[in-house]
Amino acid sequence: MRGTVPVLEARGTPFPSAPFVRFSTLWVQVTGTWCNLQCVHCLNASGPRDPWLKPLCAERVRHAIRESEALGVKDIYFTGGEPFLHREILPLLGVALAAAPTTVLTNGAAISEATVAALASLARGAPYSLEIRVSLDDVDPERNDRVRGRGAWARAVLTIRRLHAHGLLPIVAATEDPGGEGQVGPGLYGRLRDFLVDLGIDKPRVKILPLFPAGRLAGRGGDLLSEEVLDGFDRGQLQCAEARVVADGGVYACPILAGLPGARLSAGDLEESFRPVPLFHPACVTCFETGMTCRNA
After folding, report:
1. CA 258 centroid distance within chain
2. Which residue in 52, 110, 62 sits closest to 82, CA to CA?
3. How does DSSP classify residue 84?
4. Where do the H-state alpha helices sit in 58-208?
5. Are 42 and 215 in contact (CB under 8 A)?
6. pTM of the model
7. How does DSSP assign 108-124, residue by residue?
């Protein structure tokens, strides 16, 4: 995809746009769509074979962090795919933690006891906070594994236990699917909170995400935003007004759409991507309707 995907301008397209307001958040799609799981609702169709979005080399990540620090970044997120499949993930987290508060999103299935110990050591020595966000879609193993694959629940919960034992307070992230396969129904937040308390975590942290009509669920989408729909709405509230994503092929508007030609804002220079973002995808409707952000808040 690199070198062949055009960089699109919001102006001159048939789509409404979101303004660039400020730069606060850098996302690093460090492993592209390379993952050890193949979840049925994955918003970028990650999996273990032939990732359509390639992982980043370590030098590209270090360069992006240095550039973002010079531009005043407030927080940094690592995502994929599964970030802990990257052979240099620990030193890269160390570089990020020298620049800003850092979060890594993981399914928890590729994190050993030694890796957790190394993360705890990084956190103790860093000037900024390190957050580990572990995906777990249900407190029930069967319902979770129906979405994430056999054994995913047990490995995620083991990682949550290990993180807590080493003094790291994990954030558990779940995708709510109230009407589809793997239905979890209402009250997911409370059930996950209570589950974490039962594990001995006295300060449970839970983040609930909506389903996106993207990746493996692209067929669920259809509607697009229009100027009429957005009339009177403050588009500066959308996460693409202040976040950018470094991934294979360039800099993109948001982590949900990283790698898609319509979301590509520059060929690689971060500051060049500080421009209005075309709201061209059905996933933009979800952000508008739910007010969601991929950040921890």
Report:
1. 10
2. 110
3. G
4. 58-70, 89-97, 113-125, 141-148, 152-165, 188-198
5. yes
6. 0.93
7. STT--HHHHHHHHHHHH
- DSSP-derived 3-state class of residue 201: coil
> Is it true that the peptide bond before 232 is cis, omega within 30 degrees of 0?
no
Walk across the sheet containing 130-135 and list its strands. 205-210, 171-176, 130-135, 102-106, 75-79, 25-29, 243-247, 250-252, 264-266
Say if CB 125 and CB 90 are below 8 A apart.
no
* pLDDT value for 8: 54
Tokens of 297: 């808040």
Q: What is the per-residue pLDDT for 176?
A: 86
pLDDT band at 4 (very low <50, low <70, confident <90, very high): very low
Q: Which residues pair with 12 in a beta bridge?
A: none
Distance CA(265)–CA(23), nearest Å, equals 14
State the Cα–Cα distance between residues 49 and 36, nearest whole angstrom: 9
Contact 247, 29 (CB under 8 A): yes
**Are 109 and 156 contacting, i.e. CB atoms less than 8 angstroms apart?**
yes
| Cβ proximity of 189 and 155 under 8 Å | no
Tokens of 233: 């709405």
Give the position of tokens 């572990």: 134
How far lies 164's CA from each of 8, 135, 158, 203, in Å?
Answer: 44, 15, 10, 10
User: Which is more confidently placed, 125 or 9?
Assistant: 125
Task: Return phi, psi of residue 275, to 5°.
Answer: -150, 165
Query: Encoding tokens for residue 89?
Result: 């993930």
Q: First CA to last CA across the chain, in angstroms? A: 32
Q: Number of C-alpha atoms within 13 angstroms, CB side, residue 114?
A: 0
Half-sphere exposure of 158 (CA within 13 A, CB side): 12
pLDDT tier, 183 (very low <50, low <70, confident <90, very high otherwise):
very low
- 247 forms beta bridges with 250
